[in-house]
Structures are given as C-alpha cells and as structure tokens.
Amino acid sequence: EQVRASDIMSKSVASVQPEDTMEHAYNLMQRIQRKGVPVTDADGALMGTLKFRDVVKAAQTGKAQQLVKAWMRRQVPTVSPNMPFDELRRFLIERSIGCVPVVDDERGRLLGLITRA
Predict the structure, then answer these.
(1) How far apart are the C-alpha atoms of 51 and 71, rounded to whole Å?
(2) How many domains does the chain have?
(3) Up-side HSE of residue 4: CA atoms within 13 Å toward CB?
(4) Long-range contacts: 71-75, Cβ < 8 Å, 24+?
(5) pLDDT average, residue stretch 49-64
(6) What domain range includes position 10?
(7) Cα–Cα distance list, 65 to 25, 69, 116 (Å)
(8) Residue 101, beta-bridge partner list
(9) What is the mean pLDDT of residues 58-62?
(10) CATH (domain of 10)
(11) Which GO BP terms apply (predicted)?
(12) What distance in Å separates the CA atoms of residue 17 and residue 37, rounded to the nearest whole number?
C-alpha cells in the first residue's frame, strides 16, 4: 500500500488567527522555533500563512500591534491528505517549498503540515 500525505504529516500544528496581533505571532514562532505558521479561522479552515521574517519586520517597524490579516499571505499551495508520497515529493521540489499544509478537500480545514527534511 502506498504512503500518502496523511501518513507522514504532523498533526499537532500551531497556528494563528487573522485577528491575532503580530506580536502574538512572533512570540508563538519564537517558542515553537518555526519560520512560518498557518493562519486559520475559528473553525480551523486554512486562510493563509504567516512568515517569521514578516513578524520580525513588523516588530522592527513599530507595527507589532497590527493584525495578522494585514500581513498574511493568502495564496498558499496545499495538498490533499490522499496525495501519494511520490506526487507529494514532486510537488515540494517543483515549487521549492519546504513546508505545505494538508487540508480537508471539502471544507478546507487544516489537517496537518508536511515539512521537507
């Protein structure tokens, strides 16, 4: 049986919400040592991603109290939990990305993250 995205994703994923402050996002990313986090709504649906360099920039320019929604990236490549491993590997390499959210096909709910080793 073929390995699928859902078999290798991290299921416990720290995320922020659009109404959180950039300061909150900065503190979270520092604590979990990540270069980016998913942005989800109250129901867990993926809204976008936030990069660490953006939270640092917000802090350095006196904008730490701005909301995540002003800084998040809305165009995010995602994969299905059923995507086969070979296809997933190609997907990551072709896009030169190190991390991709796994989302529920119907509702767009964040299920996990796959990080390239």
Answers:
(1) 9
(2) 1
(3) 9
(4) 71/22, 72/18, 72/39, 72/47, 72/48, 73/48, 73/49, 74/47, 74/48, 75/48
(5) 96
(6) 5-115
(7) 10, 12, 32
(8) 113
(9) 97
(10) 3.10.580.10
(11) tRNA processing
(12) 10
